[in-house]
Design brief:
By secondary structure, the protein is of the alpha+beta class. The protein has helices at 14-22, 52-62; strands at 2-6, 29-34, 41-48, 66-67, 70-71, 73-76. The chain is globular.
Length: 94
Amino acid sequence: MNIYVGNLPYDLTQDELKDVFAAYGDVATVNIITDKMTRRSKGFAFIEMPDKAAAEEAVGKLNGFSLKGRNITVSEAKPRTERNDRKPRNYERY
């Protein structure tokens, strides 16, 4: 199951985040999203846990968990929507 984790401390490492979730089961991947230019964390991540029951337990117990002084949000990740349904930007107005 793919899990979304938000409101992360910006200095949190992938290993630290993996350790938190590993208490509930096997963690396949941890991907902290970073800004392409600055390489700084954007404050959210995706975690893949192969065991759905363990992942659901982690979501239930870790949502609102205090991590380095920040209450993280944890939920099942939703698939990205197709970007074609977005309104085009009007760059001519500037």
